[in-house]
Amino acid sequence: MSDIGFVRTEMLPEQAPPASAVGIIGWCRANLFSGVVNSIMTLLSLYAVYAVLSFFLPWVFSPTWNAGSLNECREILHAQGKEGHFAGACWGVIRERWIQLMFGFYPKELYWRPILTFALLFVAVIPVLFNMISRRMNWFLLALVVFLATLAFSGIMAWILMIVSGLGALYLAYTLVSVNKTDRAEQLAAGAKRLPNPLMFTAAFPFIFPWLLWGGSFWLPIGAALGFVLGYVAYTVLARSIGGLVGLIGGVVAAAVWWLFLVGGFASIAESILPLSIEAVQSRKFGGFMLSITIGVVAIVGSLPLGIVLALGRQSDLMIVKALCVGFIEFIRGVPLITLLFVASTLLNVFMPPGTNFDIILRVLIMVTLFAAAYMAEVVRGGLAALPTGQYEGADSLGLNYWQAQRLVIMPQALKISIPGIVSTFIGVFKDTTLVSIIGLLDPLGLSNAIRADANWNGVVWELYGFIALLFFVFCFSMSRYSMYLERKLQTGHK
Amino acid sequence: MTTLTDPPKESFQLSMLIYDTRYRSMTIQIVALIGFMLLIGMIISNTAQNLADLGKEPSFGFLMEPAGYDINQRLIEYTSQSTHLRAAFVGLLNTLLVAFMGCIAATILGVIIGVLRLSKNWLIAQLMSVYVEFFRNVPVLLWIVFTMAILIETLPAPRVFKGVETGSVVFTNRGIYVPEPLFARGLGDFSVFGAFDVSIDLLVILAVLFGGIYAARKVKLRADKTQEATGDRPTTWHIRLGLIVVPTVAVLFALGFYLGYPELKGFNFKGGTHMRNSLIALWLALSLYTAAFIAEIVRAGIMAISHGQTEAAAALGLRSNRIMSLVVLPQALRVIIPPLISNYLNLTKNSSLAIAVGYMDITGTLGGITLNQTGRELETLLLLMLCYLIISLSISAVMNWYNESVKLKER
Predict the structure, then answer these.
(1) How many whole angstroms separate alpha carbon A344 and alpha carbon A374?
(2) Sign (positive/negative) of CA torsion A358, A359, A360, A362?
(3) Dist. CA A83–CA A66, nearest whole Å
């Protein structure tokens, strides 16, 4: 017989892994101390983190929130036994001046206007940015914002607006709570009327935006919007009676004539019949983050369509159009933004017909938009170039004409590919708005110099820069995270 | 039997300009061209009219007038009596100086950070992510003024060093003093077109250095050939190192090279090379800011190389540093170079923010003080933009040439 004395008849139960390979210890061993070099590097970086934090945290947590001047800060810190240059932050300047850093010299009693504008901006971009919330939710948010805004002022119009928007918000809130998603889907299937598309408000917003910020007659933005209506009507009438291209030219000419010559008269006549104006605010009172966001938003919104047109021009077979587009893009991309801002501040009025003198902020807006458009064009061109030729050929073989092919086949895919680039262009433009401080506009950086000119705060540096940097960081970082979210959401390829 | 007849000859009608695709593109282009010409013509006539009203006929004569302002950081001789043109040239050299220094520093820093971000060490990877996000999401202008504030506020004033033994490099709140290279038996200067002087010593040293590098490359190529022919690689590193170092050191010795150290004289340091705060702040801030972008590019480039490449190289028996230099980097460079070019361009263009800290680059001289003193906005800004355009286009030309040479050679 065999010599085997023992044969195991059943499997041993599974054993727990050694304590050094799982849990916190295992994780540390794998990720922090996996070798001699790694361990040394971990310890060194731990020390570096400690050194930075031990210097930084006591500075941040200094009880100077209520100080009224730099000297008071120093006294408070002195009472605590802290001396020297980096004894502690002087947060009093932020408490006293943060409103100014936000709004510049915008009139105090009108702060509600920029706040309302940016709240409405948020409502307006929601249907574009996130399509996961329902129409009812969108309209509810809009009604709520308008209702809250009406609390700030008085008058019969305000009361009417307040009651209407309040009731609307209440009704929408009631339906939101009482009718759940599946019931609503059934109602819709049964033929219930849907609320209008919230994109309507988004389309109207560009006209409300400047009116709320700069004030003046409400008939001016209405007149500007009427120009689009007029152009569209001219286009449809002419296109039906004569032909597409003539219609297009006629529409553009009609709108241009309206905007250039007639809109002012229309606004003043309408104003004299029914006065609908709010207090006008001059551009030089704009400042702070309000100015940065205004420039950023206008440049972003303006540069995307302009950039798409430039990119299409650069890709087109029409030689002259292509040469013009390439020349424009390469010129703008070859010079720094600051030179374009110098052009805005000194030269743009010289280029205009004698006697024109338009506002410095408007000039800056034009130049920043052109600047952003050139970069946007390159990003979109990258997206267009990345599409396989089969897509273009497929669109052609379906019999689509150029614009149909662009709108239905090419652009949706090309723009999707270029989302990361588009968003990083947006972030770049938003950061570049700080450059306007060099030509004397009071953006946060320009204001920080103005604040330091005050005898109370002469010498405050880190707190102001830190605060500004923090706000920029919050904006830009959230934009970049949003772009990642959008990339994931639009990801239709196979991974 | 049927006969085929030619289709009737169409006569040209005016409407075909719009409806016939053969002519339509022509029509559109001509309309676009006319529109563009009209726009340009309008701008030019407006400008001429407006400038005539202001009494400023466009002319570049002001460039020859004395500038009347000082430039404290300069590479070539300049006094306040020099012309505006020379001031602009000093500014241009300053722009190129900071752009060059910035590109080198940003590349080194960016590559290190990008590689460390891929480190297996969790803590280090996280710290590098924090660095990248932190620098990318805050405006560069803020970093520039911030760095300037740090230099001014934290470094000691020169008088602190009274009676103190200073090292060879002195950090003060007026700038950094580093030893300057001096030659006891120098060959003097060589005047280029009578406009500025170039040190002959520097040219000789550079020539010898590049000659050495060239010879070392030849030796390496021969070693490569030997390796391909026989399989044995001759050891050449000492020959190559010698070829580079020995002649250079010999020339330095022959020229009587020594370092001039900064010394405190009165209230300020004398001797040594003075790098002003504005230069240091601009250089540091631009490098740190651009490094964050370059780090992301490097990371993306390395991640674009599939893991199979690394594993295959390891299977061939290569050590990890050879895998990096022979397999991963040559492929990653193809992905890295194009965005790297545009970041160099961005750095160069961002150097125009020097005006915020008072570094006299070309925006500060030509677009700043010269513009304000002469009131010639049109001429100065045109020149300024032209300078930047030339710089940008030449950087992209050089880099595109390099890009072309490392591109995949497809057949």
Answers:
(1) 17
(2) negative
(3) 19
Pick the more confident residue, A489 or A385: A385
Residue B62 contacts residue B382 (beta carbons within 8 Å) = no
Residue type, A34: S
Instruction: Report the relative pairing of strands B257-260 and B180-183 from DSSP bridges.
Output: antiparallel
Residue of B nearest to A35 (CA): B121
Question: Could you tell me if A406 and A309 are in contact, meaning their C-beta atoms sit under 8 angstroms apart?
Answer: no
For residue B375, the enclosing domain spans 64-136+276-406
The answer to whether A452 faces chain B, any CB pair under 8 Å, is no
Q: pLDDT at residue A431 above 80?
A: yes
In B, minimum Cα distance to A43 occurs at: B123
- B46 and A317 within 8 Å at the Cβ level: the answer is no
Residue in chain B closest to A480 (alpha carbons) equals: B137
Q: Is the per-residue pLDDT at A251 higher than 80?
A: yes
A31 shares contact with chain B (CB less than 8 Å): yes
A79 CB within 8 Å of a chain B CB: no
pLDDT of A185:
75
Q: What is the CATH number of the domain that holds B395?
A: 1.10.3720.10
Question: Is A31 in Cβ contact with B137 (below 8 Å)?
Answer: no
Number of H helices, E strands in chain B: 14, 9
Provide DSSP, B249-312: HHHHHHTTEEEEPPEEETTEEESSEEEEHHHHHHHHHHHHHHHHHHHHHHHHHHHHS-HHHHHH
Residue in chain A lying closest to B148 (CA): A461
Work out the number of other CB atoms within 10 angstroms of the CB of residue B136.
22
Q: Cα separations (Å) of B97 from B73, B351, B366, B380? A: 11, 10, 16, 21
Q: Does the pLDDT of residue B411 top 60, yes or no?
A: no
Q: What is the pLDDT of residues B387-404, one digit of tens each?
A: 999 998 898 888 778 877
For B121, the closest of A38, A334, A435 (CB atoms) is A38
- B159 in a domain, yes or no? no
Query: Would you state the pLDDT for residue A495?
Result: 45
DSSP assigned state of A495: -
How far apart, in Å, are the Cα atoms of B126 and each of A133, A424, B122, B218? 34, 22, 6, 43
For residues B409 and B72, give the distance between their C-alpha atoms in angstroms, rounded to a whole number.
50
Pair B223, B236: CB distance under 8 Å: yes
| Number of domains comprising chain B | 1
| Closest CB to B392 among A334, A461, A469 | A334
Average pLDDT over residues A203-213: 84
Residue B3 domain-assigned?
no
**DSSP character string of A304-338:** HHHHHHHHHHHHSS-HHHHHHHHHHHHHHHHS-HH
Q: Which residues of chain A have a CB within 8 Å of the CB of B17?
A: none
Whether B69 maps to a domain, the answer reads yes
How near does any CA of chain B get to the CA of A438, in Å? 7
Location of structure tokens 């794998």: A30
Residue B227: partners with Cβ closer than 8 Å, 6 or more residues away = B233, B234
Let me know if residue B313 belongs to a domain: yes
